[in-house]
Each structure stands twice: as C-alpha cells, then as structure tokens.
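Problem: given the chain below (240 residues), write out its structure.
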Amino acid sequence: MPIVAIFALVDAYPQPAEYHLFADTRKIFSIPNFWNVVSNALFLVFGFAGLILLGANAHLAILSRLKPACYVLFFGILLTAFGSAWFHLAPNNDTLFWDRLPMTIAFMPLFTLIFGEHVSARWARRLLWPLILVGTASVIYWDYTESIGSGDLRLYGLVQFLPLLLIPFMLLTYPSAFSTTRFYWLAIALYGLAKVFEQLDGHIYALGGIISGHSLKHVAASLVPLVLIKGFRTRRLVNR
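Solution.
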C-alpha cells in the first residue's frame, strides 16, 4: 500500500547533481577525497567484528530464528565500507549505485530483526529475503531510471525512510523479547546525527578545514553496528 501511495501521490524526482559535491576534496597519499574515503574503514572493522562474533557464538542474545538477519546485517555493513569508499573516490551516479546497494542490504535485516523481536520472529524470518529483494530492487530501479534520463528516487526513498518511522513505532508499541531496547534508540540517534552531519558538510569543514560533515557522518553511522554488538552482548531474553 505505501508503494502504491508514493507512486500515486508523489512526483518522480531524479538524483540532484549537487549531491556529488562535497566540501573536503583534499587528495592525500594520492587518494582523492581522502577523508571521505578512509572514514569508511570503521564500517569494515565493525561489520567484520559482528560477523566474527556471530560465527563464534560469543554470547550474543539473538533469537535463533533471527540469526540469518544478523548475518546479513553485518555483511551489509561490511560491504558498505567498500561501496561508500568506491563512491567517494569518484562521486557520480554510477559509483553511487554501489554505495546505496550495501546500505539497503543492511537496512532491511535491521528492520526485520526488530520486527522479529517485537512482533513475530516467525514472520520476520519469512520476510527477510523478500524485503532484501525489495530493497535491492529499489536501487536497481533508481539506477535504471537515471540511465534512461528520467531518474526516480521514490522507491528508494520509501525503502530508506519507512523503516525509520516503523522501527520507533514497534519499539514503543510492542513488548520486546529481551530485557532492554535502549541500544536501539541509541542506534537511531546516531543515524539521525549522521544525517545532520551530512547536511552540515560544508559548514563543519569551514570551521577550520580539518574535517568535513560528511566524514563525520561516516564516523557516526559506523558506530551503529558497534552499539548493536554491545547491546546484543549485554541484554538477556525475558519473553518467548
């Protein structure tokens, strides 16, 4: 229903060209846009750490039915390091595809995980791959429409922002299977802070020319998987 509504009520809009313009374009060690590129390393570190801990069964409080979602979540975060770094080496729509695809792969299992812990683990497991398919399709659809000169970000925007509305609703409305959900709220706050840094890219860089808002966006967003790992290690199962 939301997909039908957004296509019926919202006009198509392409990727703005100015999205590819960043404040800090310094070339260091022969790497263009150095800090926007290397700040993605934290995604690699924390994504890999999550996969290692899952594989080692390191006392992570996760429902067994939802472990596949966790694996895909941290794998998507790890891939984001490469996709975002590739984009920032040469910002354009072609490289942006590889930035957005792994991020979408990470968004969908996180939504599925929270849905499973609060609403239904059985249905969450069934929804995981269809939702990943929808997320992937949203990026492919945007890329295709850009290639034919009629860029359309509506589906991608829905896939990115609808979960951000539904996750707080689930956290507030449905009881959790675990002892705490505070770390999810911290993760949401960090993602929100990342979006603020993104919007203030040039303003932050102008303060001293040390680091840009977009680089800080990467740092804030990359702390989300660290918060998730810490939360999974410290909570306990209290329901179901």
